[in-house]
Specification:
Layout: H1 2-34, E1 37-38, E2 46-47, H2 51-57, H3 60-92, H4 100-112, H5 115-125, H6 132-137, H7 147-174, H8 179-187, H9 192-203, H10 205-220, H11 224-229, H12 244-252, H13 256-280, H14 284-287
Antiparallel strand pairs: 1-2
């Protein structure tokens, strides 16, 4: 009986372990191996060493896609994090009270809608001839045909979708802060701004770290928004294409080794930025 109890936990987690090995671990290792080969999906795979990586790093379109990806990440990061945190503080305050149950679902609603649906909605809003925005203001601005303008439409879409999700994360963090600290600060005459700076923000550090890393991972893998916002029958120009497009375009061209190399370069970018955030936001006292 004791042996059965010892085996039971492993039996219960076995579906996850097998699915992880089959659908993640094996494909990841296989793609890493494939990145050193020239392979078109059929026939023989020719070992070419680091040539795939060298070709990508010397390709101008690759560096433009890297720049586009970081533009989408940096342009939305501060508005989303600052907006979500301030909204969370406002909703958690005593002045809002029970109205939190009304405002929170409304702000979170864009996150529930599939990203493809929201991108299609934005494409309808900002279409040149029949778009809602141009119809309302009587303008003929080419929101989605002008690459420099469309980049900001993508950022606006990301902000609209992401704010609600991080609002919930920060609200969860605020509930972990003991009210005794605020009461003691109020007795000492601390202003609301001082309580926010001296109590709330320091104790929210773990939630900030979680939010920053999760946003980094999702933002640097952006793909759907700029591609769906592009007008129908038009491929996204290199001026707006993210790094994920380097993977899909090489797969469409039958260059699976190159696509795997692009995927691993994207992984290294995400890992590097995440480690930098972990280093900058680490607890200084615990690290001593």
């Amino acid at each position: 009986m004791k042996k059965k109890r010892d085996i039971l936990p492993y039996f219960l987690i076995s579906p996850f372990v097998f699915s992880f090995l089959i659908f993640f671990a094996f494909p990841a290792v296989y793609s890493l191996v494939l990145s050193f080969f020239s392979y078109r999906g059929y026939g023989n795979a020719n070992f070419i060493g680091l040539n795939n990586f060298k070709a990508l790093l010397s390709f101008g379109a690759f560096w433009r896609s890297v720049g586009n990806t970081f533009f989408y990440f940096l342009a939305h990061f501060i508005p989303v994090m600052l907006g979500a945190f301030l909204l969370a503080v406002a909703l958690y305050s005593k002045y809002v009270g029970r109205l939190q149950k009304i405002f929170k679902p409304i702000i979170f609603l864009p996150q529930v809608v599939p990203v493809m649906a929201t991108a299609l909605i934005f494409r309808i809003f900002f279409a040149t001839n029949s778009g809602t925005v141009n119809q309302i203001f009587g303008t003929e601005i080419r929101w989605l045909e002008n690459s420099s303008v469309m980049r900001w439409i993508v950022v606006l879409l990301i902000i609209w979708r992401a704010t609600g999700w991080f609002l919930v994360v920060f609200l969860a963090g605020l509930t972990t802060i003991p009210n005794d600290l605020y009461e003691a600060a109020m007795i000492d005459g601390a202003s609301p701004a001082r309580k926010l700076i001296s109590i709330t923000i320091p104790l929210m550090r773990p939630f900030f770290l979680f939010a920053f890393v999760m946003d980094t991972i999702s933002s640097l893998k952006i793909y759907t928004e700029p591609n769906i916002l592009t007008p129908a029958q038009v491929r996204p120009p290199t001026d707006i294409a993210p790094m994920m497009n380097m993977i899909t375009s090489n797969m469409r061209g039958g260059q699976f080794g190159m696509a795997s190399a692009a995927g691993w370069l994207l992984f290294l970018v995400v890992l590097t930025v995440s480690l930098i955030q972990l280093y900058l936001l680490r607890d200084r006292e615990e690290s001593k």
